[in-house]
């Protein structure tokens, strides 16, 4: 009965640790908001900054998995390129070792995690009680920090008696006598435990306890660490399974990094163990490769000082193993990021005819030497923005033509995603224009900037319209309504007119000196005349009961939404005259 209670206590400590990690990550992201996104965007202009960003963010959220999941979402939304994400992943893998060092420090009593956690809870509660949402989120972050540290502190005290018990020795002893086969088994054990706990930090802490209790030898503890590094990549790959191609590639890059490191260590297993032994000896501790582990089974009186020194050194040994794995792998692979990008691109190819570039492609660096040159880059970016809007409109056309709910759902998700993409690109371009406006500029340049603000605002509205149409179509499916052949023929006619207006808009945006936009006005007039004619016909059809009233409502609402798109498009062409 006592053993069952000990197991429940250990599980409770793990739950506290994992809950704290989740609370920390969520609180930090809500507290930072756009600041975190802006920080990551600014800090990924070169490989060194990418590594530093990954390290800092992971040290803060205490989870490389959480960082990688953020990267997957950023790449999915087009906020970050694949090559930059790979660099951040490398830094994140180093940052995740921070928790291992904290646990090792607390293990020998030189640093009390629990003593820090309890006071932090008070300040966390104070912040969480405030009405300001950002301060409330900061309180959530602090409370997660306290739970994480308290969970780590109590995990050691609660788990050590259980893990050092004769029963645990009997359970694992049969698995330790198969040589290289045991190494492979403990790699699998480490990966499975990490997958179950969704945290390599928690699994590494358990590995430290098992090693310090003398349950597993040092070489098999190293094997568990290798498995933990593999297991932590599975979550991000599962998250990316429903994301876009670039996000899938990001998750594959994470898997490649850790697999490469694990295979390298397995191939050079003995030299790797010896290197770790040299480092731990240099820190003044016994070498775990040559130490007598029978000391750990002795009483304190029998083992004396040598037992205490060995038990103290083992958690540091695991922390060094974990750190060295990620540092060496990063040093080897950091120069091969373009090659890794090519490999994962082949592993996850793009669908035919579909581009996955949803981020800025011209405004990657800082401002150019003059405002005029900077605005030329903005003009090119705006044209690229228009192309992305057109891709979103193509999904609108497909969604309207779809009659089956199962076929519609992926298109609805695409339209929601494109609404997020247009929001993001508008924000990034506006942020760049704000910086240009801060310099000394002429009146004509101010007019150009004002026109550019107008254009990107209208383009963002195009994304909103696509998402609004997706909601309209969703309600139509929810109510089991369909549009008859005559309605669909008229809707398709309207879709063609709007598509023509899109083509004219891009044509006007591409011209170096735009003065005449009569082509845009003609396209807008055609859309308005079509809308007016269809609206009159709709009223007559309703009076004559030519079709179901509710279906007619969805039909005419769809026509109205398409006409709104035409309004945004003509506004863009009008502003483009000023932009040139």
Report what the structure shows.
This protein has helices spanning 2-32, 34-42, 47-61, 64-76, 82-95, 97-107, 113-128, 133-163, 166-172, 180-197, 200-212, 218-240, 245-267, 269-282, 300-333, 337-347, 371-401, 405-437, 443-478, 485-510, 518-543, 549-579. With 580 residues, it is mainly alpha-helical. The protein folds into two domains: 2-165 and 178-347, no CATH class; 371-579, Phosphate transport system protein phou homolog 2, domain 2 (Methane Monooxygenase Hydroxylase, Chain G, domain 1, Up-down Bundle), CATH 1.20.58. The termini are far apart.
Most strands sheet: none
The mean pLDDT is 80
Low-pLDDT segments, ≥5 res: none
Strand content: under 5%
Total count of domains: 2
* Total E-strand runs: 0
Shape: elongated
N- and C-termini, Cα separation: 80 Å
Give helix and strand order, one letter per element, not per position. HHHHHHHHHHHHHHHHHHHHHH
| Category by helix and strand content | mainly alpha
Radius of gyration, taken over Cα atoms and rounded to an integer in Å: 30 Å
Helix-residue proportion: over 70%
DSSP helix count? 22
Labels describing this entry:
2 domains; mainly alpha; 580 residues; 80% helix; elongated; Methane Monooxygenase Hydroxylase, Chain G, domain 1
What's the structural blueprint in terms of helices and strands?
Layout: H1 2-32, H2 34-42, H3 47-61, H4 64-76, H5 82-95, H6 97-107, H7 113-128, H8 133-163, H9 166-172, H10 180-197, H11 200-212, H12 218-240, H13 245-267, H14 269-282, H15 300-333, H16 337-347, H17 371-401, H18 405-437, H19 443-478, H20 485-510, H21 518-543, H22 549-579
Helix pairs in contact: 1-8, 3-5, 4-5, 4-12, 4-13, 5-13, 5-15, 5-16, 6-11, 6-15, 7-8, 8-11, 10-11, 10-12, 11-12, 11-15, 12-13, 12-15, 13-15, 13-16, 14-15, 17-18, 17-19, 17-20, 18-19, 19-22, 20-21, 20-22, 21-22
């Amino acid at each position: 009965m006592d053993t069952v209670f000990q197991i429940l206590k250990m599980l409770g400590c793990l739950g506290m640790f994992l809950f704290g990690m989740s609370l920390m990550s969520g609180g930090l992201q809500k507290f930072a908001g756009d600041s975190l996104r802006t920080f990551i965007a600014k800090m990924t202009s070169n490989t060194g900054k990418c590594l530093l960003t990954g390290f800092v963010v992971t040290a803060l959220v205490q989870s490389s998995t959480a960082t990688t999941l953020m990267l997957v979402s950023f790449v999915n939304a087009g906020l970050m390129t694949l090559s930059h994400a790979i660099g951040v992943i490398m830094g994140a893998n180093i940052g995740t070792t921070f928790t291992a060092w904290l646990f090792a420090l607390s293990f020998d009593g030189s640093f009390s995690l629990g003593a820090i956690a309890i006071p932090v809870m008070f300040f966390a509660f104070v912040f969480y009680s405030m009405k300001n949402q950002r301060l409330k989120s900061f309180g959530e972050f602090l409370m997660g920090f306290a739970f994480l540290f308290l969970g780590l502190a109590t995990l050691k005290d609660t788990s050590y008696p259980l893990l050092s018990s004769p029963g645990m020795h009997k359970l694992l002893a049969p698995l330790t006598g198969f040589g290289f086969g045991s190494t492979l088994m403990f790699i699998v054990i480490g990966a499975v435990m990490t997958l179950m706990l969704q945290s390599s930090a928690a699994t590494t802490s358990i590995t430290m306890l098992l090693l310090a209790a003398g349950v597993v030898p040092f070489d098999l503890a190293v094997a568990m660490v290798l498995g933990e590094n593999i297991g932590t990549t599975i979550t991000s790959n599962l998250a990316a399974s429903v994301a876009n191609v670039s996000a899938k590639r990001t998750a594959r890059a994470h898997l490649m990094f850790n697999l490469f490191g694990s295979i390298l260590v397995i191939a050079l297993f003995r030299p790797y163990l010896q290197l770790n032994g040299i480092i731990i000896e240099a820190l003044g501790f016994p070498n775990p490769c040559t130490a007598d582990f029978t000391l750990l089974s002795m009483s304190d009186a029998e083992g004396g000082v040598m037992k205490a020194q060995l038990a103290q050194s083992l958690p540091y040994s695991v922390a060094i193993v974990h750190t060295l794995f990620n540092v060496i792998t990063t040093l080897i692979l950091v120069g091969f990021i373009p090659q890794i990008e090519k490999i994962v691109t082949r592993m996850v190819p793009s669908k035919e005819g579909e581009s996955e570039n949803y981020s800025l492609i011209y405004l990657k660096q800082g401002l150019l030497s003059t405002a005029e040159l900077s605005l030329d880059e903005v003009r090119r970016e705006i044209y690229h923005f228009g192309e992305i809007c057109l891709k979103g409109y193509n999904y609108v056309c497909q969604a309207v033509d779809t009659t089956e709910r199962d076929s519609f759902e992926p298109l609805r998700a695409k339209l929601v995603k494109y609404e997020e993409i247009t929001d993001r690109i508008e924000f990034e371009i506006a942020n760049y224009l704000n910086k240009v406006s801060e310099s000394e500029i002429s009146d004509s340049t101010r007019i150009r900037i004002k026109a550019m603000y107008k254009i990107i605002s209208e383009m963002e509205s195009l994304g909103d319209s696509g998402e609004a149409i997706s909601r309209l179509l969703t309600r139509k499916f929810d109510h089991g309504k369909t549009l008859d052949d005559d309605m669909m023929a008229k809707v398709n006619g309207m879709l063609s007119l709007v598509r023509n207006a899109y083509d004219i808009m891009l044509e006007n945006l591409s011209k170096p000196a735009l003065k005449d936009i009569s082509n845009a006005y003609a396209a807008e007039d055609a859309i308005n005349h079509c809308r007016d004619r269809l609206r009159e016909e709709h009223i007559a059809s309703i009076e004559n009961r030519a079709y179901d009233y509710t279906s007619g409502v969805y039909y005419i609402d769809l026509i109205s939404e398409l006409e709104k798109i035409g309004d945004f498009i003509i506004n863009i062409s009008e502003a483009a005259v000023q932009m040139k």
